[in-house]
Each structure stands twice: as C-alpha cells, then as structure tokens.
C-alpha cells in the first residue's frame, strides 16, 4: 500500500484508521447505536466526564470522522412503499453531470460509482409504482448520456445499516 495510508510507529506500520483509541471507538459505537444519548449518559457508560465526552465528539466531528448526526426514518410508515435499486450505465463524459443531478433528487437515497457492468448504483424510495415510473420517464431517462437502466424492487428488508461498522 502507499505510504499515505500508513504511519511509522516504533518501526511498525500501522494504518491511519487505527489512530482512534479505544475510548473514541466506544464513543462511536455508542453513538451509532443511539446518536441521541446524552453526553452525561455516554460518559457514565464509558467512564468519562460529560465535558471529556463532548470534547472527544467535537474532535471526531472536526476530523470528519463523524460526518453528521441523522435520524433513520422507516419509509413504509411515512407512505413510501416502493424501494428500488438501479444500475445505470452512463457514457463516461456524462458521469459527473448525471451524478450531480441525481444527487439533487429527493427520491434518491444513495448513489455510488461502481466497478463492473454498470457505472452508477443507485437506491431510491418512492410512494408507489406511479411515482417511480414518473421519476424514470421524466427525469432519469431524459438525462444526457444514459445508456441503460436496470432496476430491482426490494421485496423485504432483513437488515439495513446506516454508516459503517467499527
């Protein structure tokens, strides 16, 4: 691996991501489970003061290790019953333009540039099939450089994780 991903410490190479200490890891795990936990409760859980917890969380946010705090909404409970995954083939010169336009679409929940047969992998949530069809016909298919779109409808969600596992 390139040197930018490693630092020397006692002549042993350690990946940068391991610069998180055990307390930071405990904080991140607790916040991942419940980002509404109070600094006081979190401090009691991991053995730190409220002020120390707050300082560490602020530092993790400044380093952009914590990107944002958010809420996870059950789409079905708010009337969004169609969940679909899309593989979108795009002419290379239009990739960034299409990605930027799709990023602005409220129905698009995630968007990734992938290796393999498709250029973009996208997830969208819609109120119903008509809304999804309208999105495809009036927005996605009309974007420049779209070569092919394949879709798969979600039948049942067994597991969904926001963020990453430590």
Automatic annotation (TrEMBL):
InterPro entries: AsnC-type_HTH_dom (IPR000485), Dimeric_a/b-barrel (IPR011008), Tscrpt_reg_AsnC-like (IPR019888), Tscrpt_reg_AsnC/Lrp_C (IPR019887), WH-like_DNA-bd_sf (IPR036388), WH_DNA-bd_sf (IPR036390). The keyword Transcription regulation applies. Residues 20-81 form the HTH asnC-type domain. One of its GO terms (cellular component) is cytosol. Keywords: DNA-binding, Transcription, Transcription regulation. One of its GO terms (biological process) is response to amino acid. The keyword Transcription applies. GO terms for molecular function: sequence-specific DNA binding. This is Lrp/AsnC family transcriptional regulator. It comes from Paenibacillus urinalis.
